[in-house]
Design a protein that fits this description.
Blueprint: E1 3-14, H1 20-25, E2 27-37, H2 40-45, H3 54-67, H4 73-87, E3 93-100, E4 112-119, E5 121-129, H5 134-146, E6 151-156, E7 160-162, E8 173-182, H6 186-199, E9 214-220, E10 225-227, E11 230-232, H7 241-250, H8 263-271
Antiparallel strand pairs: 1-2, 2-3, 3-4, 5-8, 5-9, 6-8, 7-8, 10-11
Helix pairs in contact: 7-8
């Protein structure tokens, strides 16, 4: 559980709405904002730089709302939440409620509103290559993930040389692992990783075959996802030393949510 910094009923006059007159004439919007963070350090130091300045938050919400015109409250809330999480490094999550007291519905009501919560998520990504300049491909993959809006790469393992997996005769691999904070959903993150693979000229011709760049989501928070094109945790991570060895460098105590074992425990079991 996180502590909260809260701003209640901040009024902003802006030009959001579906109807043309809403965009032209504008109307009042009322915001309630919560920023989730750990305030213990601030409580001990009594220094503003150790916290998030709620005066700055109120000014930012006002300016952002006035300068980013959209049609729907849902879009306004989504974009504002992401902008705030990217702006305030100490924030682990945010709640945005937008009320529209002058909603042109034509019926007696106090207001229409939308409320969302968004958080940073903790993802681990395996990276590998066994074609061409392997290190250059891995470096390209890391750099490309850094450049994804809504992603922060916090840790990168050493690159390790490993034998190919799956019985296909091919060159040795260079493998690594990354820890990433992300605002993207698992599917959105997968889509971005597949885009990066394509930019590295990845071709999927042979299952477990050679590839210029391979990017896999190994874990995402403590989510368990089983869908047609996405399984989290990665279905065979506990069987693969080329995943567990670099992952153990950056997250030895990370716990598999289904097997209830740490990465170090899984690696020790695999080594036998």
């Amino acid at each position: 559980m996180y502590d909260e910094i809260k701003i209640t009923d901040l009024e902003v006059f802006a030009n959001h709405g579906v109807l043309p007159e809403e965009n032209t004439l504008g109307q009042k919007f009322v915001f309630t904002i919560k920023l989730y963070m750990d305030t213990r350090i601030t409580g001990k130091t009594d220094q503003l730089e150790d916290s998030i300045n709620y005066g700055d938050v109120a000014s930012f919400v006002t300016e952002y709302t006035k300068t980013h015109t959209v049609k729907l409250l849902e879009t306004a809330a989504e974009e504002l939440a992401e902008a705030m999480l990217l702006r305030y490094d100490m924030a682990k999550g945010v709640s945005v409620e937008i009320k529209k007291p002058w909603a042109p519905i034509g019926l007696p009501l106090r207001e229409a509103s939308v409320k969302i919560e968004r958080f940073w998520h903790n993802a681990y990504i395996a990276i590998g290559s066994n074609m061409g300049d392997k290190k250059a491909y891995l470096d390209f993959g890391v750099k490309s993930i850094v450049e994804i809006e809504g992603c922060r790469v916090n840790k990168v393992s050493e690159y390790i040389k490993t034998e190919p997996y799956g019985g296909v005769e091919q060159d040795d691999f260079l493998n690594g692992a990354l820890q990433v904070d992300t605002l993207l959903s698992p599917k959105e993150l997968l889509s971005e990783l597949q885009r990066i693979e394509l930019e590295a000229h990845r071709e999927r011709k042979v299952h477990w075959g050679p590839r210029t760049l391979d990017l896999d989501i190994i874990m995402y928070d403590d989510y368990i996802v089983e869908e047609e094109n996405l399984t989290i945790p990665h279905i065979e991570m506990h069987k693969r030393d080329f995943v567990l060895v670099p992952l153990a460098q950056i997250a030895p105590h990370l716990r598999h949510p289904a097997l209830n074992k740490t990465v170090m425990q899984l690696l020790e079991e695999l080594k036998g």
